[in-house]
C-alpha cells in the first residue's frame, strides 16, 4: 500500500527535523511519498532574522534544552544565535518540489540551521544551499520575483486554519488520518497498519 503524506513543517522547528528523520527511516519499510508543505511558525520575525537573545529572553536556556532534546536522537545541535525568518527558504522549498529537489533542499536547510547556526533568512545562504542541490541562482531569483510561492504558503496556512491544524509538524496520511507532532516510528506504523485494515 502506498502512503501519501502531507507534512506541514518549518525549517526552524526541531520537532519537524526529528520527524523528517523518522519518516526517512520508515521509507525503508513502507511505500511513502512525502509532500512537504511549508508552514511559517514565526512570521513576526524581521525579514533578515533577529538575534535569538532578542527574540527569546531565555535564549541560553532554550539552546540547552534544544541540545538535550537533540541528543535523545543522536544529534548535536549548535548554539542557535539567530532566529531566522523562514519565509523565503520555505518559498524555495515549495519551488523545489516542482523540480524534484524537495528532499535534498529541505535536508540542507534543516541541517544548516540546527547544526551550523546559519541564518537561513538570508538570500545568499538560501542560494548556496539551492545551488548545491542543482537549483540555480536564477531560479531562486525567479521564485522571489513572483507571488506564486508566497501565495502557496498563505494557502497552506489557510488550509491549516480551516482544518484546526495549529502546530508543526502535522502529517495528513492518505487524506484520512492526521498525526500531530514528532511521533515515534512505532506510532506511525500503527497508523499505517490501521489504514491497511
Q: If you had to describe this structure to a student in words, what would you say it looks like?
A:
This protein is of the alpha+beta class and 197 residues long. 52% of the residues lie in helices and 14% in strands. β5 and β6 form a beta hairpin. α4 runs antiparallel to α5 (102-116) and α4 (87-98) crosses α8. The longest helix has 15 residues, at 102-116. The relative contact order is 0.19.
Name the features.
single chain, 197 residues, alpha+beta, four-stranded mixed sheet, two-stranded antiparallel ribbon, globular
Walk me through the topology.
Layout: E1 2-9, H1 14-26, E2 31-38, E3 50-51, H2 52-55, H3 59-71, E4 82-83, H4 87-98, H5 102-116, H6 123-132, H7 137-145, H8 148-162, E5 170-173, E6 177-180, H9 185-196
Parallel strand pairs: 1-2
Antiparallel strand pairs: 1-5, 3-4, 5-6
Helix pairs in contact: 4-5, 4-8
- Extract low-pLDDT stretches: none
**N-C termini distance:** 11 Å
**Main beta sheet:** 4 strands, mixed
Q: Pairing-aware structural class of the strands and helices?
A: alpha+beta
- The fraction of residues in strands falls at 5-15%
Categorize the overall geometry.
Answer: globular
- Number of helical segments with 4 or more residues: 9
Overall mean pLDDT = 96
What's the order of the H and E elements? EHEEHHEHHHHHEEH
Widest sheet: strand order? 2-1-5-6
- The helix content, as a percent range, equals 40-55%
Q: Write down how many β-strands occur, each being a DSSP E stretch of 2 or more residues.
A: 6
Computed CA radius of gyration, to the nearest angstrom: 17 Å
Amino acid at each position: 500500500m502506498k502512503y501519501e503524506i502531507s507534512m506541514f513543517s518549518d525549517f526552524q522547528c526541531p520537532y519537524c527535523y526529528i520527524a523528517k528523520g523518522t519518516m526517512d527511516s520508515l521509507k525503508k519499510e513502507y511505500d511513502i511519498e512525502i509532500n512537504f508543505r511549508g508552514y511559517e511558525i514565526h512570521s513576526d520575525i524581521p525579514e533578515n532574522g533577529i538575534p535569538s537573545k532578542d527574540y527569546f529572553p531565555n535564549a541560553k536556556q532554550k539552546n540547552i534544552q534544544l541540545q538535550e532534546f537533540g541528543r535523545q536522537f543522536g544529534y548535536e545541535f549548535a548554539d542557535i544565535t539567530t532566529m531566522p525568518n523562514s519565509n523565503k527558504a520555505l518559498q524555495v522549498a515549495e519551488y523545489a518540489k516542482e523540480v524534484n529537489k524537495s528532499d535534498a533542499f529541505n535536508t540542507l536547510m534543516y541541517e544548516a540551521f540546527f547544526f551550523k547556526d546559519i541564518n537561513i533568512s538570508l538570500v545568499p545562504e538560501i542560494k548556496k544551499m539551492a545551488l548545491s542541490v542543482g537549483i540555480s541562482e536564477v531560479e531562486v531569483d525567479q521564485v522571489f520575483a513572483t507571488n506564486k510561492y508566497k501565495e502557496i504558503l498563505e494557502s497552506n496556512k489557510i488550509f491549516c486554519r480551516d482544518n484546526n491544524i495549529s502546530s508543526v509538524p502535522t502529517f495528513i496520511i492518505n487524506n484520512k488520518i492526521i498525526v500531530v507532532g514528532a511521533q515515534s516510528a512505532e506510532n506511525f506504523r500503527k497508523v499505517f497498519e490501521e489504514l491497511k485494515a
